[in-house]
Every structure is written in C-alpha cells, then in structure tokens.
Amino acid sequence: MNKKVMIGVGAVVLAVIIAVTAILAVSCNDNPGPNPGPNPGSKTDALVVMSEELNGLFSPFYATSGSDMEVVGMTQISMMTTKYDPTKDTAVLAWGDEEAVVVKDYESKYNANNDTTTFTYVLKNGIKFSDGHPITMEDVLFNMYVYLDPAYAGSTTMYSTDIVGLQEYRLQRASSNDEEESLLNTQASGRAFNRINELITLWKNTDETPSDGSYEVDEATMRDAIAAKSKFADGYKKAIAKTADWAEVDWNAQLLADYNETLRLFKEELGNDYKAAKDSYTEEPYKSWEQFKDPVFCFMYTEGFVEVEWAKKIGANGRQTDDKSKIEKLTPLYSTTVVKDQASAINYVYQTKVSQNLDQILSYWGTASTLRTEYTAKAKDVILHESLTGDELPYPRVEGIVSVGHNTEETSIRVNGTDYAVARNYNNDGTVANANEYAVLQITINGVDPKAKWNFSFTVAPQHYYAENRTVDIAHNNFGVAWADFDFHKSEIQSVRNVKVPMGGGPYVATSSSNKDNPEGNEFYSNNVVYYKANPNFVLGEPNIKKLRYQVVSSNNALSQLESGAVHFVTPQFTKENQQQIESQKGNGIRSKATWQLGYGYVGINAGKVPNIYLRRAIMAAMNIELALNYYSTGTAKAIHWPMSTVSWAYPKNADGTPNTNNGHDYTQYPKVGDAAANKAAAIAKVQELMSIAGVSAGSGDLKMKFTIAGSNLTEHPTYTVFKNAADILNECGWDVEVVPDTQALTKLSTGALTVWAAAWGSTIDPDMYQVYHKDSTATSVKAWGY
Q: Is 685 exposed, middle or buried (0-12, 13-18, 19+ CB in 10 A)?
C-alpha cells in the first residue's frame, strides 16, 4: 500500500518537478483494536486499510485516480507481475506457477531479419475468476482489443506500442504513418466542437436582445427552442451519424438529449463542488470570518456569488494592489433566505448558471471537458465507419497479435528452453480441451521497445462480465469487442454495474457490509468504506484474511485514526511531525516501514486556460520549489527535472549510475542570486519582464486565476508555502492569484477544469510518459494540460 506523497512543481512543457521518493506505511501490529464499519468498532473480523479520497469509478478499463485503481486492483489478476531482483537492484517482470498471474511462461526475441520483436506468453490452465468462470485466451484477447480499440478513451495506452498491423486495424485501411491517426483525432475533435457549438448557438439566438453581451434563457424556454428548431448545421450532424443515416435521425430529440446530458453533468459537478467547498476554507484569510464555517456560504463563495473586498497594499510596480492575505469585507450576492441549505444552494447556482452562462458551462467547466471526450469518441466512430464500404472489416484483427492455436498451424512451441504442446482444440467455455496442452499468445512489434513488455502485463478482466452480451470466436476474429463503437464502450463496458462493482481473478471479491455475493454499487462502496471478502478461487489459494475494507481517511489525521483503532494500516505523509508521533507510539504496538517509491509530486499549468507561454513562464519564475522540501524529514525528498521518480529504471542516469538531476534544458525557474530577499526581488523582476514580453499589463483579466491544492487543508500540504510565496510575488506584480484547497481536485483534473494545481502522480513500474503528457494520448489525464 503506497502513499503518493504530494509535493512539487511542474508545468505543461516547462516542467520543474519535485519528487518525494519516500513512502511511509504504518500498521498496528500488537494491538489492532476494534475494526470499523460504518460505525467504527462494530466489527472485529476484518482488516481495515486507509484509502485516499475515492471518485467511485471502479472500472479496470476506465478508472483514473490512483485510489480508485487500487480499489479495482484488489479484485484483478494480471498477465504478469513485478518483483524485486536484488542482483539487479530493481524490479523485474515475474511469471510462473508460483506467481499470482495468468502467464505460466514468457520470453521475448528480437528478429534482426525484419527488425521486429516477438513476445511469447504461455497461459496457465485451470485458473478462474472469482465467480468460478475460467480465465482463458478469450479473456486475454478481449482485454487487448478493448485497449486497442480507437473508441477507447481510458488511461491505458497500449495503443502507443508499435504492434505490427495495429494502425491498419485501428483505421481499417492501409496505414503508412502515425500522422493519419493524429489527423483522425483532429477531425474528431473538430466535430465534437461543432456538436457543442450547436447548443451554444441556439441558446444565444433564443435571447434575441441580449444586453451588454449577456444572455438569459431559462430551461423551459431552451427546451421550447430545441423542439421548434427546424434546421441543424451539417457540422452537428457529422458529429453524430454517417451522412447516409441522417434521414433516420430525429435531430430535435438528439439535441434535447445533448441538452439533458449537459444539465445532468453540470448538476453532478455542482454536487462535487459543494462537497469540496465545505471543507476548503479552514485557514487564513478565511478562518477569521464566521461565514466560512457555513458550508453553504463556502459553496456560494466558490461559485462566485460572494463579493470580496480585499485589503490593499502597494505592489512592486508602485501601484496599489489587492492583499490576498487579508479580507476586508464579504458581501453575499444572493438571498440568504432563499439559499439556506445544500439543496437550495446547488439549485440556485444551477438555475442561474444554466440560464445565464450555458456557453461557459459548455466551454470551460468540467462538464464541457466530459462532453468533449464523449463527443470526440463518438465522432471517431462516425468518421471511421464512413470509410467502410461493407459490413466486413478489411482488417478484422491486428496482424501482430496471434493466438497460436487459433491462428497458426504450430503444434509445439519452445519457450525458455521448455517445449509446450500448443492447444488447437477448445471447449465451449474457452478452456483448453486436451490435458497438457496450452494456449499460447504471441505479440510482435516493430523494432525494439523497452517498455512494451510492461504494456503487455495488463490486467485480465472477465469478458463475460464486462461485455456479457457479446460472444467470442477467436478463429473467426470475434473478440467480444465492437470495433470503433462508442455506444459499446459507453453502454456496455461502462455500464452502471461495471463501473461501480469490479470483478476479476484477484485475491478479493466485492461484497457489502452484510457480506453479500452480488452487491449493488452503493453497497460495495458505502459511507466512505469499500467492502471485500476473500476470493475462494484465487490462483494461489483463498487469502488467510477473509474480510478486507478500505476506509477513506484524511492523511492529516491518519495516525490519530490508527491510534484510536478505527483503521489498522495507514500511509500518512512522511512529515517531521508524523515521524516524531510514530516514534512516540511504538510502545503502543505501532509499527512503520519507510521505503522509496515511484510517484512524484508536481505543479501543473493548464495551457488551455493560460495560453500565453510567457505568462506560464512568469508563474514558474515565481515558484520557489525548495520551500516544499522543508515539509519533509531531511533526505526523504529531492528535486528532479524529469517527471518520474529517481528510483525508476527509466530515469536518466549519469555515467556512475547516479540519477541525473539536471536535464540540460534552459527553462524558466525561480532565480537564485543571493539571500531570500535578493531572490524574491529577482523573481519579481523576471515576472515583470515576462509580462512585458507577453504584452499583458498589471490588472489584466488574464492574470486572475486560482492555484488549487488537492485536499481539504492548505497549510498541511507541502506545496502550500510554494504557492503562497508565488501568489505574493505575482500579486505584487498586478496579478490576481488566490490559493485554494479542493477535495475534488483530482476529479477536476480529469476534466481539465483547473488552471494551476499541486498534486502527485503515482507511476507504475513503467513510467508511461505518453499516457500522461503526449498530445495524442486519449487518456483522461492528458485533459489536465489543455492542449
């Protein structure tokens, strides 16, 4: 259980990042105490482990946050795993009968004759998912074809691997280069914009006499306008259906569905905002004001319905500017008799924004990003199917992915010096028909790719659960996946059950507080507790710990929860205070373990919200990342210049094997010219210089933004001092920067809703830079950067 400790700095292309490479796991060994359920202390037969905040998207295909992935991971089994190799002092791939994996034997070979590398996997026989269904080649290929499908928009980027024939399969035409897929992404994104713009245009046109450039169209009026609309732009139609099918589409009904989906997502987003706001204003300058003890007021403040009068000070340019460290006056811009509880507050903001700011909801809010993702995937579906001339796919499978027993004539194969009989006959349930024969998978890529083996160590989720209405027939190129079909991913892979209750071949099974076999989503994760029970069909035998629970616990009070017996295992921040507290509790049965980890902390800047590169550089010039290191015990954090942990195999090394902490690039960073005062003065001068180059003057609306810290507490975050110092510098230069906490920050990151933020990234053994940063990655994490 690894805690991704959060500190650091980084921004789009101009990245300066701090990696915290130490993790701290603490358990209660001698006196585990009572075991919590919804009422702590009510159960004594389960192990309870601390979890970070959960988004509740528990899908092996579409989970995005590290905590959600961890919840899913307890129910899953992978092709291969990793283990520490002391002879190499690093993690290596592991497989075989003694490991909890699908693969019995594995090897890779490079062929110099055609410059390809082939990975061969011998699958185990007799292993099962938790519900007793066998794990077979059908499940393995189903998972691969989900990940490789052009309509897939999850975080796994197996499609970035140059598998032989992959581009032909994804585009269904002979492909000569990667630019064709990039063009597809661009075209699909354009059509998604047109689809969104159809609603914006209608909304604006419905208010025929806007005053001062503002609009107001209430929900009922908008619905009437949609029903009465008689002409729809071709750009809108092309985003939804092939030209040949236009006559079959009820465009009014489709536009109404788009509007309803927008309102549903927006209402959900406001609900998340409320949860975040009620715990966000506990520090100065808010703490001194009684209003911020009211969650309704906090929410209305967050949504811009409170007018703030800040204290004044003289900035570095000699002009009077706001002092964001002191509030002089707060004025609600709403009726406190109407807005008095959560429901009325959310409804007030909802009605106001939907009527007056629908264009902003569809352009800048997290709702807009979610819609763009869906509409882009749907547009890809339309574009790709427009080019097909018949019902059959010209390229029905990926050439480089071969089930040896189904696709070739081989009857035996040698792997690592052992000869295996290749299964050629299979039972109806996909299992090997003859004893002592094995299903064998081969994947061939072009050239050599050191990270391909990690991409192919994917989780094997059950096809019969995640696509239960589909059949698999490998010999006839049917893998249980509808090619480039947005609706397949949306309604089947991401059905309500499939994203709320995970299932697989892992050590544990989803259950409920009453130990149900088939829990509903609101039973598996209820009242901040996730419920598991041991999997009797686990490949290494049923776990000894029969019941397991994940309890959402704030890292700020993790040790207090451990000491009280509310949880048995926590991963707190590795701060000086926590280290001292652990030492003082050792006599009470508290035990701890510290080790290096693969995650890193960073600060990100959304280029979509700060499009001027010189303003992004100005923000970086104000960030003194050294301040974050003071949060941790000496030697437990270090600065890095690539976005990955220094303990990763991929981190660049010097000739002597030590991490190279300087990447040689001339990027903007906080100046170090002397003492603290001199450094600050130099930073102010650099910010003003970059503002001049950007052509932006003090007081410009382009300089108003929030620096968001992921979590509920400002001062208890390592990057707070970095942000506070940077905000002071920028505000002295005529900016309008406010530092705020947000418990929903990670959710908002996946929709691209934040401007500047501090968070952390928990890497796997393969630090997938394509997934996180590449403009053509379809992973939701890329939306954070606003490309």
A: middle
In the beta sheet, which residues pair with residue 596? Answer: 22
Phi, psi of 377 (to 5 degrees): -65, -40
Strands 529-534 and 508-510: antiparallel
Measured between alpha carbons, how far is 772 from 604 in angstroms, rounded to an integer? 12
Let me know how many helices (H) and strands (E) the chain has, helices first.
25, 27
Take residue 682 and report the two structure tokens written for it.
Answer: 């130099």
CA proximity to 403, closest of 744, 121, 99 = 121
Give the pLDDT confidence of 354-376 residue by residue, as tens digits.
Answer: 999 999 999 888 898 889 989 99
Q: Taking Cα atoms as reference points, which of 358, 369, 388, 386 lies closest to residue 189?
A: 369
Across the beta sheet with 600-605, the strand order is 638-640, 17-19, 600-605, 756-761, 704-710, 736-742
User: For the whole prediction, is pTM greater than 0.70?
Assistant: yes
What's the rounded Cα separation, in Å, for the pair 51 and 570? 8
CB 479 within 8 A of CB 493: no
Three-class DSSP category at 41: coil
Cβ neighbours around 567 below 10 Å, total? 28
At 323, which helix (H) or strand (E)? strand 320-332
Cα separation, 678 vs 670, whole angstroms: 12
- The string of DSSP codes covering 628-659 is HHTTB-TTS-EEESSSS-TTSTTS-B-TTSSB
Q: How far apart are CA 189 and CA 711, in angstroms?
A: 32
Which residue is associated with the tokens 């064998």?
A: 440
SS3 (DSSP) at 383: helix
- Cα(539)–Cα(21) distance, integer angstroms: 32
Spatial distance between the Cα atoms of 536 and 545, rounded to a whole number of angstroms: 11
Peptide bond before residue 295 is cis, with ω within 30 degrees of 0: no
Strand, helix or coil for residue 664: coil
Sequence-distant (≥ 6) Cβ neighbours of residue 735 within 8 angstroms: 698, 703, 704, 705, 727
pLDDT value at residue 718: 82
What is the per-residue pLDDT across 627-681, written as a single tens digit (0 to 9) for each?
888 887 777 777 776 777 777 777 777 877 777 767 677 778 889 888 989 999 9
Tokens of 441: 């998978």
Q: Which residues pair with 402 in a beta bridge?
A: 442
Instruction: Give the Cα separation of 778 and 440 in Å (integer).
Output: 30
Q: Which residues have a Cβ under 8 Å from the Cβ of 463 and sit 6 or more positions away?
A: 138, 139, 142, 143, 470, 472, 480
